[in-house]
Amino acid sequence: MSQLPVPPALLDDLARVDEIILERVRPRLAVIRAAGEHILTSGGKRIRAALTLLSAQLGEYNLERVLHSAAAVELIHAASLVHDDLVDQAARRRGEVTVHTRWDGDVALMVGDYFFALAAAEMALAPDPRIIGYFSRGVMTICEGELSPVVNVAPLNIALEQYLYKIGCKTAALFEAGCKAGMVCGGGTTEQIETLGRFGYDLGLAFQIVDDVLDYVGDAQTLGKPAGNDLREGTITLPLIYAVEASGNNELAAVIDLAAPDETRVQWAIAEARRLGATDRALADAQRYTERALEHLAGFPDSPARQALGDIAHFVIARVS
Amino acid sequence: MSQLPVPPALLDDLARVDEIILERVRPRLAVIRAAGEHILTSGGKRIRAALTLLSAQLGEYNLERVLHSAAAVELIHAASLVHDDLVDQAARRRGEVTVHTRWDGDVALMVGDYFFALAAAEMALAPDPRIIGYFSRGVMTICEGELSPVVNVAPLNIALEQYLYKIGCKTAALFEAGCKAGMVCGGGTTEQIETLGRFGYDLGLAFQIVDDVLDYVGDAQTLGKPAGNDLREGTITLPLIYAVEASGNNELAAVIDLAAPDETRVQWAIAEARRLGATDRALADAQRYTERALEHLAGFPDSPARQALGDIAHFVIARVS
User: Fold this and answer.
1) Quick check: is B1 in a domain?
2) Which of B28, B31, B140 is facing A27, going by the closest CB pair?
3) CB A143 within 8 A of CB B32
4) Domain assignment present for A200
5) Chain B residues lying within 8 Å of A142, measured CB to CB
6) Predicted-complex ipTM score
7) Which of B104, B114, B169 to mutate to test the interface with A (most CBs of A within 10 A)?
8) Which residues have a Cβ under 8 Å from the Cβ of A278 and sit 6 or more positions away?
9) I need a surface site. Which of A12, B47, B105, B209 has the fewest CB within 10 A?
10) Hey, are the CB atoms on B147 and A117 less than 8 Å from each other?
11) CA A122 – CA A68 distance, rounded (Å)
């Protein structure tokens, strides 16, 4: 299931996490079960669970201690995706129709709530009360991000500030929470937990920037959704911000103000963002956040787990090259 | 704030619960703060928090131990109301405009999620891991109920089964969870916890039946929304089920099948339900569930807390007479 560059033993542990999750989704109500299985089996890489497990491996690894935190981080992620798709009215995700499209908005709303509750039940099984604190703060941050769109494509400093806040809430906060939870399970010191949290946060920023770049340089097959989706939906991401800055005029910014830009305009904007070096500049930022993430790892003794966390960090960037 | 018939000391403790909740709703994002305060200050009775605190008082009462469970039960209730109003597209609740009406659906979705996360953070502060289990199961049950409408108004046995399942999920499960959590905080035995859970469940059934009867016999001012709301929205509740049974024909059942029944039809159906004794019959059921709830209390030694729980049970019924 996972295409992550992780050791075979970790794949086994990730399979255990998956078992736990799928086992939990046994509501009496068939529609919740079906929608739950639909989202959980539609090709996620389980990168958050992998980070949580590997974080624990930096300390004293005991799968049973960290399993529930790894399940919780994926359940929270799944819940937030379902609700995010509902807010965005997205028709597809990872090549599959979204829950609110296949069923309806009420089902998507309730399946998300159900997953949040399942995540809470998992957290209750975690060995340390700090963990539920990290994850609940993570969910609150995701909610704040969901209601904080990037509204300015220029000037650059304002646009960047909004964008970094947005992706920090949307993606980095949960990466951070997962890493911290894992490190707590591994018995890390307060300083180690904080440091690994920063690793997760920076890696989350890099991950989301790469995701946003892929929407400009990827093809529909790898993306599981058509490229140019963000432009079509009027979502401002880093490539557009840099492209507008580089172009020095308002033509590109105007594309996202169109209620439904025609396909020629979208393709032109994508080509412009690439021609102007905006996607490369965004990728360089992702590279920089990845390097900063790796610096946080440097204080930990060398180990297969540290190696694997580094491999995942490189994989995050490699997805686009 | 509370019009519950509870001892003055409990009102002080409920005020502490309210402080905790309002203190927690301090997100950076103004819209979540505003929407959160809107729902939390719009006149709830905090009956769930009162039940949780009083349940703890049946054992060894320590406010600090049970405070977070009482806050959690109200936060979960608030979250589920916001999402329920979104599913129902209800314009008003307790006389106030609903969150999705005043702001929009995305805000309602995220404020609900935010509250669920706040509840999880509160549960993490509770003294026993079973508590989070009760509450997360309660949320899952609410989700299942939300997607399980009463679809048959007849035959009676089918309609009753659907209705009791629905209100069990929607209301009784969280009453049950709150009572069990309180009893755990009070150091109750497993048997006491289960017994008090059944008290809460039966009281929850009575509470919801009375709510549904009020929609037929109350006036707009006490309801905070126009009477006949359920009929207008095509929602089948106990008074209608009994009215259809008593009328022996399909005229009443036809009203809820209308996309938008005119006001004359709604008022006629309300009058018929009362004339046919359907509201009285529903109330008698509520009375019966209340008595069953009180029987569960009988095994506990007499105490001011047991007395107060009994008073709340009688209050639940008295709301309608």
Assistant:
1) no
2) B140
3) yes
4) yes
5) 113
6) 0.92
7) B114
8) A216, A238, A239, A240, A241, A242, A243, A245, A246
9) A12
10) no
11) 5
Q: Identify the CATH number of the domain in which residue A288 sits.
A: 1.10.600.10
> Between the CA of residue B56 and those of A217, B45, B66, B196, B204, what are the distances in Å?
59, 19, 7, 10, 18
Q: Which residues of B touch A (CB under 8 A)?
A: 27-29, 31-32, 79-80, 83, 86-87, 106-107, 109-114, 116-118, 120-121, 123-125, 129, 132-133, 135-137, 139-140, 142-144, 146-148
Q: Which domain holds residue B218?
A: 8-318
Residue A115 and residue A75 in contact, taking contact as beta carbons nearer than 8 Å? yes
B2 found inside a domain: no
Q: In this predicted model, what pLDDT tens digit does every residue of B277-307 receive, in sequence order?
A: 999 999 999 999 999 999 999 999 999 999 9
- Tell me whether residues A118 and B136 touch, CB distance under 8 A: yes
| Distance from C-alpha of B117 to C-alpha of B78, rounded to nearest angstrom | 12
B155 has pLDDT over 70: yes
- Which chain A residues contact residue B139 at CB under 8 A? 113-114, 116-117, 120
Closest CA to B243 of B145, B159, B318, B150: B159
Count the Cβ atoms, other than its own, within 10 Å of residue A164. Answer: 18
* DSSP 8-state code for residue B170: I
Per-residue confidence band for A223, with pLDDT thresholds at 50, 70 and 90: low
Q: What is the DSSP string of B192-208?
A: HHHHHHHHHHHHHHHHH
**Average pLDDT over chain B, rounded to whole?**
91
Cα–Cα distance, A204 to B187 (Å, whole number): 43
Tokens at A296, concatenated:
């946080």
Within a domain: residue A303?
A: yes
The minimal CB distance from A83 to the residues B113, B124, B136 is found for B113
The DSSP annotation for A40-75 comes to: HTS----HHHHHHHHHHHTS---HHHHHHHHHHHHH
3-state DSSP call for residue A258?
coil
Give pLDDT tens digits for A22-61. 888 777 788 888 888 888 887 778 999 999 999 999 999 9
The length of chain B, given as a count of residues: 321
A319's CB contacts (< 8 A; 6+ apart) are A210, A214
pLDDT score of A151:
92
Give how many domains chain A has, as a whole number: 1
Residue appearing with tokens 């997360």:
B136
pLDDT at A1 over 50: no
